[in-house]
Amino acid sequence: MAIPVLEPKIFACSQSKVLAEQIAKAFGADLGNVIRSTYSDGEFQPSFEESVRGRRVFLIGSTHPSSENLMEMLMMLDAAKRASARHITAVLPYYGWARQDRKDKPRVPITAKLVASLLETAGATRIITMDLHADQIQAFFEKPVDHLFASTIFLPHLKELNLDNLTIASPDMGGSKRAYAYSKALESDVVICYKQREKANVISHMELIGDVTGKNVVLVDDMVDTAGTLTKAADMMMERGALSVRAICTHAILSGNAYERLENSKLEQLIVTDSIPLKQESSKIKVVGCAELFADVMKSVHENKSISEKFLM
Question: How far apart are CA 168 and CA 152, in angstroms?
């Protein structure tokens, strides 16, 4: 006798509830009921207030700092596993701690791998995420990983801008592959910024490889944290004769003095997704929603359909 396939259930971690509501709506389902109880010392406990036995469960939550965001995802994975969910998919619009993907000096952790192990141990049977800081992080998992590219939503937006003399730029050497992929899709030129860091989030030197004179430049990166690299690159390109400089960054971490740097820079616009909720509004920031992308992929996963068309890069 065949086991009936039940409709999936979608739940949100508290840090991504707004995005999860949009994803559930696009999916055509209601967001599941989960409550979070908190003790006076700050310890908390999530609880599913409905049965998930035998279901496919999607748990949506970005794992950007603070570490409570990651901890909540782990606890919800564990709760779903112990409640006998059939499949448990961790939907991580932003995979936090991904910059620690290798030993760049002695006696440091590879935290991106540690997080992968924690997610799997907690109960994740599949991972859906977007624009990892390094593609090879997929290999840190023993479970299937669907690595989506925000280019599927950014490229149509860029084409709508209809910019003349468009040039795609990478803010560093590590992002050159992403920049070349965008330039190929848009049939544009490419320039690369070469930077040296004094320490994390501090740039000691930056040079430009390529000519931006008379060009409308779009910088492409996977994330923007302090905005130091982006604003420094934008100011340098304007000094080198660029007509305008915009930036596309998937994940808007925007910590420290990022908002102040953006406002004081020559960067015309920063285009981001809503994988991480903005801390404050800014006239220079344009948010492009990613809910439809995740909902489409989640539906395809549930129906065992191909999602290869979501991989444009």
Answer: 16
